């Protein structure tokens, strides 16, 4: 049996976490790792104790902003970072695995928190029909290493 690489393990976990999302448009998962240890996980969705979009609004989902994003949802990266900070874990120097490359807003948070590297599965720009991945461009401009995951993940759903 071949031992899996940590990148494969953490990206597969991010994919499985994405399946927990209640969003009807896109499922995104994130894993925050420091020195090969998981310090936090997250997936996109509304704040705890509000509602689940697929249950409250099964046909349309939540209200959308001008870019078509949910007005209530917290992004997977944000959830992972917030949970780590809430539990007094340092995220500085960590690596973030995420199923969708960070949007510009998340990129600003990632950079501000001192996260050193981002590995992503799919492009936010392709998903949103944008000309470039603004979040990745921002992170690279300020020295954060960004890599597209090149491995293979089994059992991806259409929403991931």
TrEMBL record:
<feature type="binding site">
    <location>
        <position position="103"/>
    </location>
    <ligand>
        <name>Zn(2+)</name>
    </ligand>
</feature>
<dbReference type="InterPro" id="IPR002125">
    <property type="entry name" value="CMP_dCMP_dom"/>
</dbReference>
<keyword id="KW-0479">Metal-binding</keyword>
<dbReference type="InterPro" id="IPR015517">
    <property type="entry name" value="dCMP_deaminase-rel"/>
</dbReference>
<dbReference type="InterPro" id="IPR016192">
    <property type="entry name" value="APOBEC/CMP_deaminase_Zn-bd"/>
</dbReference>
<dbReference type="InterPro" id="IPR016193">
    <property type="entry name" value="Cytidine_deaminase-like"/>
</dbReference>
<feature type="binding site">
    <location>
        <position position="106"/>
    </location>
    <ligand>
        <name>Zn(2+)</name>
    </ligand>
</feature>
<keyword id="KW-0378">Hydrolase</keyword>
<dbReference type="InterPro" id="IPR016473">
    <property type="entry name" value="dCMP_deaminase"/>
</dbReference>
<dbReference type="InterPro" id="IPR035105">
    <property type="entry name" value="Deoxycytidylate_deaminase_dom"/>
</dbReference>
<dbReference type="GO" id="GO:0008270">
    <property type="term" value="F:zinc ion binding"/>
</dbReference>
<dbReference type="GO" id="GO:0006220">
    <property type="term" value="P:pyrimidine nucleotide metabolic process"/>
</dbReference>
<feature type="active site" description="Proton donor">
    <location>
        <position position="77"/>
    </location>
</feature>
<feature type="domain" description="CMP/dCMP-type deaminase">
    <location>
        <begin position="5"/>
        <end position="134"/>
    </location>
</feature>
<comment type="similarity">
    <text>Belongs to the cytidine and deoxycytidylate deaminase family.</text>
</comment>
<dbReference type="GO" id="GO:0004132">
    <property type="term" value="F:dCMP deaminase activity"/>
</dbReference>
<protein>
    <submittedName>
        <fullName>dCMP deaminase</fullName>
    </submittedName>
</protein>
<keyword id="KW-0862">Zinc</keyword>
<dbReference type="Pfam" id="PF00383">
    <property type="entry name" value="dCMP_cyt_deam_1"/>
</dbReference>
<feature type="binding site">
    <location>
        <position position="75"/>
    </location>
    <ligand>
        <name>Zn(2+)</name>
    </ligand>
</feature>
<dbReference type="GO" id="GO:0005737">
    <property type="term" value="C:cytoplasm"/>
</dbReference>
């Amino acid at each position: 049996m071949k031992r899996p690489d940590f990148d494969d393990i953490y990206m597969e976990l991010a994919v499985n976490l994405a399946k927990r999302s209640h969003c009807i448009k896109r499922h995104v998962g994130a894993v925050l790792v420091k020195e090969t240890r998981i310090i936090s996980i997250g997936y996109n969705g509304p704040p705890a104790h509000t509602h689940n979009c697929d249950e409250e609004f099964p046909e349309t989902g939540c209200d959308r902003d001008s870019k078509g994003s949910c007005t209530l949802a917290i992004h997977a990266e944000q959830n992972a970072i917030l949970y780590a900070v809430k539990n007094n874990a340092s995220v500085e120097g960590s690596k973030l695995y995420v199923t969708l490359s960070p949007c510009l807003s998340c990129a600003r948070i990632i950079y501000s928190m001192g996260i050193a590297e981002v590995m992503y599965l799919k492009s936010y720009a392709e998903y949103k029909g944008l000309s470039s991945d603004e979040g990745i461009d921002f992170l690279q401009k300020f020295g954060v290493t960004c890599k597209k995951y090149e491995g293979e993940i089994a059992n991806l759903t259409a929403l991931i």
